[in-house]
# Entry
Amino acid sequence: MGKLGSEISTEEYAGVECIKIRTPSSIKKMAESWLLDPNRGFLLVGYEHKSIKRDGTELINKVKITKAVEAAPGVWFPVEATVLSGPSFATSWTYRKSFFKAKNVQVNVAGLDEKTYRISFPEGTRVVTQTEVLNG
# Structure
């Protein structure tokens, strides 16, 4: 493994032995990690992004899947999660905690077609998409 290679280990999460993949960034003082549950089809149960500002302040963004359902044989879907969002490099606002909850998860529903996934935005809606290339 080189300086920027991924580190793979195990870590206990919510009483389950998970696979942890940690990838340091080419930008110093930053890393991302993912926790996968091998007992549930390698369901992503946790994600963390850490970075350190120039003043030494540590910024952490986390997603923790707290509940998942087997939506189809071998297909797990997160239905409850907690998201902890830290301040960005440009702002001074504090951490915020959000909660995600899904109900009535269904797969392979008959009658769904392309029209189901078209979004009609109300008059005056502004949609912005952005791609940022780092280190490239």
Q: What stands out?
A: The first strand starts at residue 7 and ends at 13. The chain has a mean pLDDT of 83.
